[in-house]
């Protein structure tokens, strides 16, 4: 996905997402968090394609790695968590060519890595990786998921919410809305009609099997369609745990 679109959108991303999804994305996030907490309450999290860091804010684990390639999104994440009392550590390094920014608040630690899912390298494995509306943005889904899977502890989880192709009438209606109406709203609200046309197209690029095929070595412990069946939730557990 062209990162420039997300750079341009970064400062208005949270607001724009609420408006164009009528708050449904927030409802999906709430359902996702509720499911995740049934399996794991705290620990080390890697959130991929973090955008403005809402997933980290909602899960609030003790140690959180956020992987996000857009420099402007990273800026928004840092500002958001600073407002929540996190302090930037004296540690902003270019590590393996990618900026790492560390934020701390009491026992809680956030490390933001400005990189893609395909290329990010971490020197720690996580209890869980979350990918909320993330996978369809990867340039190479297989490479991205393989790289992420390497960073999960034995017995750890890979948790996904993604919009996928679906033949139901309601899904077709939602897709029509995303492809035809949302770009018009985004054009009026943000001057970003063409960008939203591209984002809309990316929704039809994934089907559920593509995701499941890339979860070899993991067992599916939860799979469900969320309200408005265009979004699917998958929680998979690494087999050797
Ligand atoms: C729809 S947003 C994700 C929403 C976010 N996960 C949340 O919880 O609100 C998509 C994000 O994917 C990021 N992205 C694009 N290409 C990526 C890649 N190859 N690897 C990881 N993230 C990518 C974009 O910069 C953007 O911030």
UniProtKB/TrEMBL annotation:
A molecular-function term among this protein's GO annotations: methyltransferase activity
InterPro entries in the record: SAM-dependent_MTases_sf (IPR029063)
Protein's recorded name: Methlytransferase
One protein family per Pfam: Ubie_methyltran
């Amino acid at each position: 996905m062209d990162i420039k679109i997300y750079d341009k959108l970064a400062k208005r991303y949270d607001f724009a997402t609420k408006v164009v999804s009528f708050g449904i994305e927030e409802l999906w996030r709430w359902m996702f968090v509720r499911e995740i907490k049934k399996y794991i309450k705290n620990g080390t999290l890697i959130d991929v394609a973090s955008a403005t860091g809402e997933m980290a804010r909602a899960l609030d684990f003790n140690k959180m790695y956020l992987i996000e390639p857009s420099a402007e999104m990273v800026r928004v994440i840092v500002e958001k968590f600073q407002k929540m009392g996190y302090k930037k550590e004296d540690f902003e390094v270019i590590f393996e060519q990618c900026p790492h920014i560390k934020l701390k608040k009491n026992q809680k630690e956030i490390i933001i890595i400005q990189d893609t899912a395909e290329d990010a390298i971490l020197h720690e494995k996580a209890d869980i990786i979350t990918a909320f509306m993330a996978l369809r943005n990867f340039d190479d889904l297989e490479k991205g998921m393989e790289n992420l899977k390497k960073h999960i502890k034995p017995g750890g989880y890979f948790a996904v919410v993604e919009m996928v192709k679906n033949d139901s009438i309601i899904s077709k209606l939602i897709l029509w809305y995303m492809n035809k109406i949302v770009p018009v709203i985004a054009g009026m609200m943000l001057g970003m009609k063409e960008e939203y046309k591209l984002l809309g197209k990316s929704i039809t690029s994934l089907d559920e099997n593509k995701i499941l095929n890339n979860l070899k070595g993991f067992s599916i412990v939860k799979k469900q369609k969320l309200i408005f069946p265009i979004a699917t939730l998958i929680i998979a557990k690494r087999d050797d745990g």
